Amino acid sequence: MKWNEFKKTEKAGYLFIIIAILNWSGNFVAARGLAGTIDPATLNLMRWVLATLVFLPFGLKSFIRERHLVVRYWRELSVIALCGISLYDTLIFIAGHTSEALNMSLISTLSPLLTALIAQFFMKEKLKPSMYAGIAVSTFGVALLVTDGSLSALLNMSFAKGDLLILCTAMMSAVYNSVVNKVAGKISQTTLLMSCCFFGTLYIVPLYLWETGGQIVMPELTYNLAISLIYLSVFASILCYLFWNMAVEAIGASKTALFYYTLPPASAVVAWFAIHEPVNMNQIFSGLVILSGIIFALYGGTLKFMRRKVHNYG
Fold first, then answer.
1. How far, in Å, CA of 42 to CA of 90, rounded?
2. Rounded CA gap, 295 and 261, in Å?
3. Beta carbons of 138 and 259 less than 8 angstroms apart
4. DSSP bridge partners of 184
């Protein structure tokens, strides 16, 4: 099977998701290491300027060749860049000043549900009831994970202004997946990512100027910042976005968004390897619950059909 045929298959879609999640999960570890040392819009701008420069030799030729498509879909590309690059990380960082970690984690889990709703009611994508059941199970798994198994902590939740920003990022993630799904196949993945780099970096500039009071202020480039920027730019930006978008094209926005639930346990594993944070039994059990929810969402209806088929043959 040739590459152009393989990359559109379901197997390829799941492979792309695994690669994207592995690259993305280290994003939270790197961000934790930079906490308090650099402002969010400044970090985001430096990250995507470097990502654009790194990807430029690979994406510029395709971008120029398909410039007529970039002009045709500039609105969709702008939405993708704003929701996936320019605003997302900045709003999460700002929300972190007032929003509790528990609130941030739980509200973020609305993203797959919102993606499914957008796909069903606006993109006219038919979704099985097992999809929503699987989302509920995976959400329960995330709740177990972030409360360390003490679900009673949910009763003590209080809401702050930052929670509204987290809700906005969940909606942005859903819109991002849906719009990527809309333009998939109409524009090449190389041009799509190159466009995101250009538009996303451009739209970060006003946020950066607002953050610095209209001045051009850059932080001291330390060794830790340089290493973090290289990782964030190459792995958590270029490779992550490229493979995530390819997964959306291969299996659709709703199925791809389900794997958003794997980020917390995947981040825990990366933190275990990278900074030696311990992994406890609750994290392992929660990860299994999350995974079972994803499997049921993807194959619940299929398994039911197979049981009926076996019964009929019996």
1. 9
2. 12
3. no
4. 187
| Count of alpha carbons within 13 angstroms of residue 173, beta-carbon side | 27
Helical residues (DSSP H) of 252-280, grouped into ranges: 253-258, 263-275
Helix, strand or coil for residue 221?
A: coil
Residue 107 pLDDT: 66
Helix, strand or coil, per DSSP, at residue 160: coil
DSSP one-letter string for 54-103: HHHHHHHHHHHHTHHHHHHTHHHHHHHHIIIIISHHHHHHHHTTTS-HHH
Q: How far apart are CA 308 and CA 294, in angstroms?
A: 22
What is the per-residue pLDDT across 84-143, written as a single tens digit (0 to 9) for each?
999 887 787 676 666 555 556 666 667 888 888 887 777 667 778 888 888 888 888 878
- Residue 39, classed as helix, strand or coil, is coil
User: pLDDT (tens digit, 9 = 90+) per residue, 135-171?
Assistant: 888 888 878 877 777 777 666 766 666 677 778 888 8
Other Cβ atoms less than 10 A from the Cβ of 39: the count is 18
Please give the model's pTM, rounded to 2 decimal places.
0.80
- Closest by CA position to 234, among listed 23, 5, 9, 18: 23
Check the CA dihedral 219-224-227-232 and report its sign: negative
